[in-house]
Amino acid sequence: MQNISIETQLALAEQQLNTAVHCLNEGHGQALMQASEGLQVTAVGLVQLMHTARTSAQAPEYAAKVGELAQRLISLRENLIRRSAYVERALKVVMPAVEKATYQTQGPYGSTLRSAGAMNITSA
After folding, report:
1. Which of 70, 66, 58 minimizes the C-alpha distance to 3?
2. 12: which residues sit within 8 A by CB, 6+ positions away?
């Protein structure tokens, strides 16, 4: 009975992962957040289920399937990082940063020191 439940949970996790990958590829931010939340809930449920059914969850087919899902999650994470960098660069092109900041620090304690004039040195 728990084997069917583990298989169902693995299939659900794979479906959630496919949805997240599709949303990332299509650029749907809100749908990606929802798919990621669903994937997280499913993954937590799968881990809890596999911990409660340790003897039946150690089957080689489950290990292979979990390994495949883990590799796809790594790939999704890398693609998410790439997309984030791409969006960050595009944002800098569209909205460049302001050149002068409100508080510019040029020296170690704020602004650079300026000479107030020549110092007269007198000796006795």
Report:
1. 58
2. 42
